[in-house]
Design a protein that fits this description.
Number of helices: 6
Order of helices and strands: HHEEEEHEEHHHEEE
Radius of gyration: 20 Å
CATH class: Mainly Beta
Number of strands: 9
Helix content: 25-40%
Shape: elongated
Oligomer: single chain
Bound molecules: flavin mononucleotide
CATH architecture: Roll
Structural class: alpha+beta
Largest sheet: 9 strands, antiparallel
CATH superfamily: Electron Transport, Fmn-binding Protein, Chain A
Number of domains: 1
Distance between the termini: 20 Å
């Protein structure tokens, strides 16, 4: 059996070979496969299956992690939105590499993504910003994310300030807010199996295709 066929088999959690299943035809493309797993996670009823941990590092190599929401994924990479003055953003400006982690416990699945990071275009950030509710847009203006907040009242006052300022107007994209894209250099799909004999498959880009290898659990 080819490695690709073994992956198709492994990824169906012991349901046997489902090569006829069109969704599984895409196991040679980790982005398509990721989307397939994400759809399954959505269908499983897991709350916020698009939430992911993102780890960043200072230039001294000190790591930190937090949860953000995946908003787009395509051949270019994995996109999330945040404050460009936040702690994570400072670390990403110093050290433009990140690790993403999804864990879908009900499905016994984990996906690890590592790669270089870049800001998405201002236009793409603005498009997403304006698709959000007005409250979230005001929240982005009001929060000095990761800065010390002496009193919650200060935040509430800032919200009122921006509500007044933008009353009856389109809220502009803050220049300190937008998206980052993680361009994958390595993607690992992990499927839990009995007796801790889990399946792990690594995808690494090689020209326009992907090298696939298997690791011990
Ligand atoms: C479920 C969940 C989703 C979140 N989504 C985002 C997000 O998409 N963007 C974001 O900036 N922070 C998000 N947060 C908050 C972050 O975890 C974090 O507190 C914030 O980004 C500040 O992190 P930093 O100080 O390390 O930069 C989310 C938190 C949770 C629990």
């Amino acid at each position: 059996m080819s490695l690709l066929n073994k992956i198709r088999c492994a990824f169906t959690l012991g349901q046997g070979l489902l090569i006829e299943n069109k969704a599984l035809q895409s196991t040679d493309d980790p982005i398509a496969f990721f989307k397939f797993w994400l759809t399954e996670a959505e269908k499983s009823g897991i709350i916020l299956p698009e939430s992911m941990s993102i780890s960043t590092c200072t230039s001294e190599g000190r790591p930190s992690s937090r949860i953000v929401l995946l908003k787009e994924v395509d051949d270019q990479g994995f996109v999330f939105f945040t404050n460009y003055n936040s702690r994570k953003a400072h670390e990403l400006e110093e050290n433009p590499f990140a690790a993403l982690l999804f864990h879908w416990n009900m499905l016994q699945r984990q996906v690890r993504i590592e790669g270089r990071i870049e800001r998405i275009s201002e236009q793409a950030s603005a498009d997403y910003f304006h698709s959000r509710g007005r409250g979230s847009q005001i929240g982005a203006w009001a929060s000095h994310q990761s800065d010390l907040l002496e009193d919650r009242e200060i935040l509430v006052e800032r919200v009122k300030h921006f509500e007044n300022k933008f009353k009856g107007k389109t809220i502009p994209l803050p220049d300190f807010w937008g998206g980052y894209r993680v361009i994958p250099e390595r993607i690992e799909f992990w499927q839990g199996k009995a007796d801790r004999l889990h399946d792990r498959f690594i995808y690494q880009p090689n020209n326009k295709s992907w090298d696939i290898t298997r690791l011990n659990p």
